[in-house]
Design goal:
single chain; 293 residues; alpha/beta; Rossmann fold; DNA polymerase, domain 1; 2 domains; seven-stranded mixed β-sheet; 14 helices; globular; binds S-adenosylmethionine
Length: 293
């Protein structure tokens, strides 16, 4: 079961009140949504969005409330989703980026380098699977993705191995095949064994295959169409690149006096939370209040 990160901190910043309309753009296991729903009460409304149909179907089963609207869709399309459901701009929006533990453990879509699954790496069939994408990418493109989205110093070596395989017309069909290839490409004492050699490359390919950077940029660029004046926005990211994007958007909006920044520094997990949920170690939470939209 996915354990929500920075739950209390996020709810404190979003401050959902009775009767308000909230959006959870990354439903996942619904950890944040359930508390928001509790706080806004029966007179409030909650729109939940997730690309992963398993996540939205499960929430439908668990939470058959009349005041919940469930959309199996991309949060980058929130302005259109609001129109489609004839909803006004929200009093609050949460984005808890990336993937959930359920997706690593149960999706069967190749997110885990410890499993032997088809190398899809996508949250839904909306995006092209990674094994197919790799057949069309140039070596330099593969290297740039691994380096920029994974901060992987052996990006060049890994990209070369992948391209060699594709050149021999051997498609990398499974997560295990990719993990084994990466292991062969990097030195045996990779990071002194602290992390699995495939950790960073898998993260990079997941971000790339799901267009996570583009989706984040799009939702932040449209925030005024999604959240109303006085509304609160909270974003939890797990990667320095994403956190930088969030920080820059919020700073630029603050300069234009469109938002008030509620977190001078990003909020991070307490030692107690990290010890219970290691996934929270890299989480960074930033929040703003909309002043003009
Ligand atoms: C970290 S999990 C959210 C966990 C959730 N807050 C909880 O506590 O259970 C991120 C979720 O966002 C979804 N997701 C990622 N990118 C998305 C996008 N562009 N649009 C909609 N959902 C997305 C993933 O499928 C995943 O279920």
């Amino acid at each position: 079961m996915h354990v929500p990160v920075l739950l209390l901190e996020t709810i404190a910043l979003l401050d959902p009140k009775q009767g308000e309309f909230f959006i959870d753009g990354t439903l996942g296991g619904g950890g944040h949504s359930k508390i928001i729903l509790d706080k806004i009460g029966k007179t409030g409304k909650l729109l939940v969005v997730d690309l992963d149909k398993k996540a939205t179907d499960q929430f439908k089963e668990e939470t058959a409330a009349e005041n919940v609207i469930i959309a199996n869709d991309n949060f980058a399309k929130l302005p259109e989703i609001l129109k489609k459901h004839k909803l006004r701009r929200a009093d609050g929006l949460i984005l808890d980026l990336g993937f959930s533990s359920d997706q690593i453990e149960l999706s069967g879509r190749g997110f885990s380098f410890l499993r032997d699954e088809p190398l899809l790496m996508t949250y839904s069939d909306e995006n092209e699977p990674l094994y197919q994408l790799l057949t069309r990418m140039k070596q330099e493109e593969i290297e740039a993705v691994i380096r920029d989205y994974g901060d992987e110093r052996y990006a060049g070596r890994i990209a070369r191995e992948i391209r060699e395989k594709i050149r021999r017309r051997e498609i990398i069909r499974s997560s295990k095949e990719l993990a084994d290839l990466i292991k062969r490409a990097v030195p045996a004492n990779y990071e002194h064994g602290r992390i699995h050699p495939a950790t960073r490359t898998f993260q990079a390919f997941r971000i790339y295959a799901n267009k996570e950077v583009e989706n984040l940029e799009s939702v932040l660029a449209n925030i005024g169409k999604i959240v109303t004046k006085g509304g609160r926005v909270a974003v939890i990211s797990f990667h320095s690149l994403e956190d930088r994007i969030v920080k820059n958007y919020f700073r630029n909006y603050a300069k234009e006096q469109k938002v008030e920044i509620l977190t001078d520094k990003p909020v991070t997990a307490s030692i107690a939370e990290v010890s219970q949920n290691p996934r929270s170690r890299s989480a960074k939470l930033r929040a703003v209040k909309i002043l003009k939209s």
